[in-house]
Design a protein that fits this description.
heterotrimer; A alpha/beta (about 250); B mainly alpha (about 110); C alpha/beta (about 200); A: about 250 residues; alpha/beta; Rossmann fold; nine-stranded mixed β-sheet; two-stranded antiparallel sheet; about 25% strand; globular; C: about 200 residues; seven-stranded mixed β-sheet; 5 helices; 7 strands; about 20% strand; disordered N terminus; transferase (chain C); SAM-dependent_MTases_sf (chain C); Ribosomal_L11_MeTrfase_PrmA (chain C)
Chain lengths: ~250, ~110, ~200
């Protein structure tokens, strides 16, 4: 049976319409509802299903962020994780702490916990970077299976989402990193009895600086602005019309 | 007004569960809406003579069913939002047209 | 609810028919305690005519099972007073005669009890407490008490419920759907005996 580690991120709730802060340097987080990144929920659910199928012996949930990240970890525990590790940092996890820093931190935890299976969301809905999983696999020096729509640990195969549809790939061995796509599963909802019981599960706290000295990734946010309202699209009747438009209006072919 | 009767524990538990789920319920008025609707539903029969255990449990079971429905709405809404936000460029009709375009390009080569 | 039998909500904990109490930890039937009740139902001789202690009783499901199966006396113990009150009410709801029921709301860890059987459901729930509770239960077992521990295989329990520690698995039951829903990630529960 394998040990499973899942990364979970606390982000602005998917239903919140974000505002840009007045200094145009970030999204305004004051009084904004936060919750677990939806793709992380899918990662947690997959881990819990592995445990329920007796393919996993233990699930460790890891989150990086301010004190409130513990609420997100409690949700993960309520969904069925066994214990949690909170890595504390004052850096804003939506922009100051990028995928590189996160991957280094998770790799440092993985070195201590030696999980066989690491599952993270394919991306977070705040930064939308979508590369933490890949970078983590690189730092851990293990195989990666990204955009997983189905994970089969026995057959060592993963069905993954691609632009054209899905493909099945096999991975050589565990440990490996998997990133969860939307179709991997439908995550369960953390109910009241589960939330109450999750309060007693073990949660360790480690300062980010004690794990990784350099968390920077060399990027600087210059300006944050709202997207321009999109011009209305046009419906093309058939392929000929599409070709015509691509040729004469967009000039791309 | 008559003195308020103690809230049966099962009903109190139901309301607690409703408030927890209500935080995520997708409605324009959010929590206040959930509070209002659930309070109304839970107090509707308040003045009826005390329920027999079985009758109360039947009502509570209906309440729990409604909670599961609310959770379903939350999950569906979130799934759809993610799908629209990250996958709708995979519009099937458009994909079909792109595939045909690709095929024509191959033929014309 | 009258008897812990297949028609009873305590027996088949269903979200629509829970134990009739709200609030914290005594409000739910716990998987370990449910497992002990199941085990006793299959092996009533374990408690018949015995003095039983339902340690960390919660809602009291395993103690009530023991009483109904013929235990001479069942003491419900929990450090939470409200839980003990809940046990008392559940015992009354199940028509247990008063002289068969005892209530104790203090921390018994370390004490020498007069029990012949100790039922301990879900006691390794908090990693920090598990060691001291199991140490005490082992001492009681050495004094000749039959100690049954119910546990659904939690991460915090695993180090304390191994065969090499003198804790022997006696039975294992799949959890009913409602208990699975309330305990995400758990699918079965076991009953262990702490060997003397």
């Amino acid at each position: 049976m394998s040990r499973v580690m899942v990364g979970v991120k606390r982000v602005v709730d998917y239903a919140v319409k974000v505002r840009v802060a007045s200094d145009k340097k970030a999204v305004d987080l004051a009084n904004v509802k936060m919750s677990m990144n939806p793709f992380c929920e899918i990662a947690v659910e997959e881990a819990v299903r592995l445990k329920e199928a007796k393919k996993a012996s233990e699930i460790i949930a890891v989150s990086i962020g301010p004190k409130q990240a513990q609420e997100t970890l409690r949700t993960a525990l309520a969904m069925g994780c066994d214990r949690a590790i909170h890595i504390t940092t004052d850096l804003r996890t939506d922009q100051e702490l990028g995928p590189k820093g996160v991957a280094k931190l998770l790799a440092a935890v993985a070195e201590k916990e030696s999980p066989d299976v690491v599952i993270v969301g394919k991306q977070a809905i705040d930064g939308d970077m979508g590369c933490t999983g890949s970078m983590l696999a690189a730092y851990m020096d293990v195989p990666q299976c990204t955009f997983a729509a189905k994970i089969d640990l026995d057959a060592k195969t993963v069905e993954r989402e691609t632009d054209a549809g899905t493909e099945v790939v096999s991975f050589p061995s565990l440990p490996a990193v998997f990133t969860a796509d939307l179709r991997l599963n439908e995550p369960r909802y953390a109910t009241l009895p589960n939330i109450m019981k999750a309060k007693k599960k073990k949660m360790d706290t480690i300062a980010a600086a004690d794990l990784v000295a350099d968390l920077t990734d060399g990027n600087t946010v210059l300006e944050v602005f709202e997207p321009a309202p999109r011009a209305a699209g046009v419906l093309v009747d058939d392929v000929d019309a599409l070709v015509d438009k691509l040729k004469n209006e967009a000039a791309v072919i | 007004m008559s003195a308020p009767r103690a809230i049966p524990p099962l009903v109190r538990d139901l309301y607690k569960r409703a408030l927890l789920i209500g935080r995520d319920y997708p409605h324009a008025d959010g929590m206040p809406y959930v509070r209002r609707v659930w309070k109304a539903a839970l107090t509707r029969d308040r003045d009826e003579p005390a329920f027999a255990d079985a009758a109360l449990r039947k009502k509570v079971a209906k309440g729990r069913f409604m909670l599961r429905e609310m959770v379903g709405v939350i999950q569906l809404k979130k799934y759809r939002a993610m799908k629209r936000r990250y996958y709708d460029d995979r519009d099937e009709e458009l994909q079909g047209k792109m595939r045909e375009l690709h095929r024509r390009g191959e033929e014309g080569r | 609810m009258h008897l812990i039998g297949p028609s009873d909500p305590l027996y088949h904990p269903d979200p629509s028919k829970p134990s009739p109490f709200t609030d914290p930890f005594w409000a739910f039937v716990w998987p370990g305690s449910w497992g002990i009740a199941e085990h006793l139902r299959r092996n009533p001789a374990l408690v018949q005519g015995k003095i039983v202690l339902d340690f960390a009783a919660g809602c009291g499901v395993s103690g009530i099972a023991a009483a109904q199966l013929g235990a001479k006396h069942v003491c419900f113990n929990d450090i939470d007073e409200v839980s003990v009150a809940a046990c008392s009410m559940n015992a009354a709801l199940n028509d247990l005669p008063e002289e068969q029921v005892g209530l104790e709301a203090r921390d018994l860890v370390g004490a020498k009890t007069n029990a012949q059987v100790i039922l301990a459901g879900d006691v390794c729930y908090e990693a920090e407490l598990a060691a001291s509770v199991m140490g005490w239960l082992r001492e009681e077992a050495r004094r000749g008490v039959l100690v049954l521990v119910g546990d659904p295989g939690r991460w915090s329990s695993k180090p304390h419920l191994a065969g090499e520690l003198g804790v022997e698995e006696k039975a294992r039951f799949p959890l009913p759907a409602a208990l699975k829903d309330d305990n995400s990630g758990l699918v079965e529960t076991s009953v262990f005996q702490v060997r003397p």
